[in-house]
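Subject: design request, 289 residues
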């Protein structure tokens, strides 16, 4: 029997079992190198930091919400933090299914430094920048190749220098693409968005209250106030009610295991999920069938 899996919180869980990815921890940036044989590797990832992906060999399929993105060799994509994505890696069949990519996980403070360096206040807009797959050229490829040796000898890395090079690199690619520049700017402050849509899209993900406030384009205090004005309750209680209702629906209408339903409804601990379910419905999930 295949053990059901929960969403992988990245980047923190990528260097642990069973992934053991090579990582570099810099000030505000985590770089992850992925070199593997991939016939068709799938998982769900929850992005704890902003995610910049460069594919060097093979293909990386990403599904976010109702949108699919296919990132081929020498292409890149930038995604905001606090979202869950379905990830599927496919190696190049002409090269023994080799797959290679480099992933950059960018913290907010790094984005702030980039915005300060870019000095582009005039690009503020109420429109959300479009996420898209973009090709990258020789200059960027040379930069990625220059980073690779540090994974083998991390003690030799000059973290300050690499960080400066990363800032310069982002500025270079953003300067050539206004939409990407706008996307980078909006990583720090999301466009103000309808709370009801944010909640319906994310209540099954392992999100924190701060994540939801960020996704809605509000401060934490503004999010709490606006949420209460709409729902007349607090976010934690609303999420719990929605998740429990979804769990009961899945127990009644599917053959999914209790573990699978636990993970699909945003919980990460099966015992906690079962206790919570019993407190709401008076029986354990396994007793619903």
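Subject: RE: design request

Done. Sequence follows.
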């Amino acid at each position: 029997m295949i053990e059901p899996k929960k969403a992988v919180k990245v980047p923190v869980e990528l260097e642990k079992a069973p992934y053991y990815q090579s990582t570099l921890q810099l000030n505000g940036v985590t770089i992850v190198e992925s070199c593997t044989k991939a016939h068709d590797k799938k998982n769900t990832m929850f992005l704890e930091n902003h995610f910049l992906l460069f594919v060097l060999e093979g293909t990386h399929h990403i599904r976010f919400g109702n949108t699919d993105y296919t990132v081929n060799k020498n292409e890149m994509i930038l995604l905001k933090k606090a979202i869950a994505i379905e990830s599927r890696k496919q190696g190049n069949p002409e090269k023994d299914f080799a797959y290679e990519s480099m992933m950059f996980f960018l913290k907010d403070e790094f984005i702030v430094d980039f915005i300060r360096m870019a000095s582009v206040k005039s690009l503020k807009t109420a429109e959300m920048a479009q996420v898209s797959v973009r090709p990258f050229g020789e200059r960027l490829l040379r930069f990625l190749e220059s980073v690779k040796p540090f994974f083998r000898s991390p003690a030799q890395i000059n973290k300050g220098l690499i960080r400066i090079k990363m800032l310069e690199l982002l500025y270079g690619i953003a300067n050539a693409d206004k939409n990407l520049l706008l996307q980078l700017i909006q990583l720090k402050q999301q466009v103000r968005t309808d709370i009801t849509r944010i909640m319906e899209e994310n209540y099954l993900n392992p999100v924190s209250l701060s994540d939801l406030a960020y996704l809605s384009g509000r401060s934490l205090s503004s999010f709490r106030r606006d949420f209460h004005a709409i729902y007349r309750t607090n976010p934690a209680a609303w999420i719990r009610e929605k998740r429990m209702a979804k769990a009961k629906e899945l127990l009644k209408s599917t053959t999914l295991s209790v573990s699978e339903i636990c993970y699909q409804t945003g919980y990460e601990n099966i015992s906690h999920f079962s206790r919570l379910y019993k407190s709401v419905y008076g029986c354990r999930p396994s007793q619903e069938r």
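The longest strand covers residues 29-37.
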